[in-house]
């Protein structure tokens, strides 16, 4: 069996692992990145009939506050952004549409809140922004809203916003501290949503470029099958053909894989706490059209059906061939819908109806659909019983964890980037401290 020695071995080549490998190799560390499939993990872009289908939208929320932007600056990534036009984001209210009140401009224009409720909502936003409203880890957002006797319209508004930002059909279960932490960031941003031109593929290519230019090694189609632990340290990970030894290890693989690899270790019982974790599931239904269907909005959310459509090609010029259009519909799945084929069919029909309503004639222009009935949009679903995995445990100090199932900031890929950024900082700081000592 081949044996190689590194400073840091990173297991898992999704956005968390690949960004960690880029940051550490950029700092002169000898790294190996091991991925069992293709790089990108859930963030992939597939070209079908000239349409760039992303496995999920490549929207980055609050990029001016984000860890991805820090990485972009630290690593000199060449990314081209297109920022979301806030006033083109609408709620479908049945008979009419209204602006999504996720900033002050939207708030003044929205038809969802009337009279005093607009001021009440503005008051909550202001309190969240200046940091007075922190929530309570033991209280769900629904309990919090009930206790504060928030008016029904404002309550509904806040839960709807949570639904679309946390990709969940059950926003009432989100812990109130997570909810307010998220909105504190979002309301401070000047750029609520942005798209990366060229999709996830462009971002992955940029990280790979940094790793390769710093002589980092990338092993795809290599699954880590086991780990060697001596005393309180992981000393090596093993694929079928190679043993990778290192001083530090980052595991950017989902909890069920971690439990398998660490079942004999001192952190087994810690990981057990995450055994029952439930991901956030969605159904997505993308359509590639040969001709654009013009619409006054680029994002439309139906709160009753819990579905939204984004006009991806409006923001990402590379998403559709010239003159064409790529639309993406996402429906949040409730717990009872995840394993029920009848529910999947029902949801698919609802999405088609929603397309009919807002993009009439789409069937005539359809070149290619892409449907995923059950997709993991985030590896953790925020509920009172589920919290992100810590990024390290004292029992194994040279082991670090990153991914969108870990404790971090923001939601979705920002959880992957923030946890990855933090573990890299920790590794670099610990090493600097050792050298200084
Ligand atoms: C429909 C949809 C829409 C989305 N929209 C957005 C959006 O608009 N904005 C946003 O920010 N995010 C979005 N996301 C979420 C985003 O895709 C994820 O948060 C992000 O890609 C997670 O990256 P990760 O590295 O944390 O995890 P993963 O991508 O799951 O990476 C884990 C990697 O580990 C590898 N692995 C597992 N076990 C092993 C092993 N034993 N050995 C080696 N490798 C292993 C896996 O193959 C995988 O590549 C969306 C996701 C979906 C599905």
TrEMBL record:
<feature type="domain" description="Amine oxidase">
    <location>
        <begin position="15"/>
        <end position="428"/>
    </location>
</feature>
<keyword id="KW-0560">Oxidoreductase</keyword>
<dbReference type="InterPro" id="IPR002937">
    <property type="entry name" value="Amino_oxidase"/>
</dbReference>
<dbReference type="Pfam" id="PF01593">
    <property type="entry name" value="Amino_oxidase"/>
</dbReference>
<dbReference type="InterPro" id="IPR001613">
    <property type="entry name" value="Flavin_amine_oxidase"/>
</dbReference>
<comment type="similarity">
    <text>Belongs to the carotenoid/retinoid oxidoreductase family. CrtN subfamily.</text>
</comment>
<dbReference type="InterPro" id="IPR036188">
    <property type="entry name" value="FAD/NAD-bd_sf"/>
</dbReference>
<protein>
    <submittedName>
        <fullName>FAD-dependent oxidoreductase</fullName>
    </submittedName>
</protein>
